[in-house]
Amino acid sequence: MSTSVLTETSPKNSVSDLALFGGQPAFAEKLHVGRPNVGDRERLMARLNDMLDRRWLTNDGPFVQEFERKICEFVGVRHCLAMCNATVALEIATRALDLQGEVIVPSFTFIATASSQSWLGITPVFCDVDSKTHNLDPAKVEKMITPRTTGIIGVHVWGRPCDIDGLTEVARRHKLKLMFDAAHAFGCSYKGRLLGAFGEAEVYSFHATKFLNTFEGGAVVTNNDELAHKMRLMKNFGFAGYDNVIHPGTNGKMCEASAAMGLTGLESFDSFVDTNFRNYKQYHAELDPIPGVKVIDYDPKERSNFQYIVAEIDETKTGITRDELIDLLWAENVLARRYFYPGIHRMEAYKPYFPHAGLLLPETEKLSARVTVLPTGTSVDSNQIHEICALIKFASEHGSEIRKRRAGKL
């Protein structure tokens, strides 16, 4: 647990007590979203020392092989290809699937989902999401298909699974390749099966901000033998043997230190999930009574990693916008985030090409203005969560006054 402590300030009794207006911040140290989980440090250091003693630091070392094997066993798939990061994993899977022309993706996702396509000369076509699940809506996907469409990338946002059956049927009917960006979703399930075994392939992120991390890393998992063989060549420059390059490739390999961190994290997997679940229940209990603040739910029938605490802010009830709330929290050293703002279709790299995309993405536009992600994980304790919720409650109760004070009207 974190050793960070609350500053010795009295509770916020008036708007003037807020750090925005000169009061002491509620926290002495900044609370981040996605602060890394470490696991058993002694086990990690033992692995790193073992790695250094062997002097085998990369190139499909024993830790990478073990990590890939354990991911396969955990998820129940035939192949895991550990990569240097999830963006490169998406690019390699895209090339291996021979996607071209247009690929349908959500705009409500991290930029890498789209940039992995545009980097390869593919046009990412942005489709709207379901307002309840925050994931691609299969009915809307079908309307975005053109003669140039070759594939669909569904994103399991927050680790909550896409409508996999619906997307699979759309892909089958139109003869499209279907892949899933499962960056958030390691350890999460769909109809009782862990995500990773669906579509042609699924891509995990093991970035430092993910609850299971490899410092920096990712992986592609698949049951497609031919695809796995091709990707294994592609991630290592196309080498098949010592001096024999038989396929175009790049350098997508995971190093031994990253795999050592991943193996150490896997040993603490249950503990990480238990902590996330405990935090999730506390946030729900303390934020649910606040009008205009809605914490998203995870399906109790499915497995989840609970790594994201996501709240939608309805300013008509709170009297304060999501962005105003985040400004307030940042001043108190709570570094809440506005995922996935402003939607990829509004980012400078894509806006000139899709100037009217927002007209087709009403749910994405609404979500990108409402969603707030709050700190959780092993670096946040119960007292800190209570204080964060108290700040949000105070902001909701005094929203109108805070807004007027910021506008200089009080």
* Count of individual beta strands: 14
pLDDT below 50 for ≥5 consecutive residues: which ranges? 1-9
In oligomeric terms, what are we looking at? single chain
What structural category do the secondary elements indicate? alpha/beta
Largest sheet: 7 strands, mixed
What fraction of the residues are assigned to beta strands by DSSP?
Answer: 5-15%
Largest beta sheet: strand ordering: 2-10-9-6-5-3-4
CATH architecture of the largest domain: 3-Layer(aba) Sandwich
Rg result: 22 Å
Question: How would you describe what is shown here?
Answer:
This protein folds into 2 domains: 157 residues, Aspartate Aminotransferase, domain 1 (Alpha-Beta Complex); 227 residues, Aspartate Aminotransferase, domain 2. It contains 14 helices and 14 strands. Strands 2-10-9-6-5-3-4 form a 7-stranded mixed sheet, sandwiched between helices. A 3-stranded antiparallel sheet has the order 11-12-14. The protein has a two-stranded parallel ribbon with strand order 1-13. Strand 5, helix 6 and strand 6 form a beta-alpha-beta unit. Helix 1 packs antiparallel against helix 8 and helix 2 packs parallel to helix 8. The two termini are 41 Å apart. The relative contact order is 0.17.
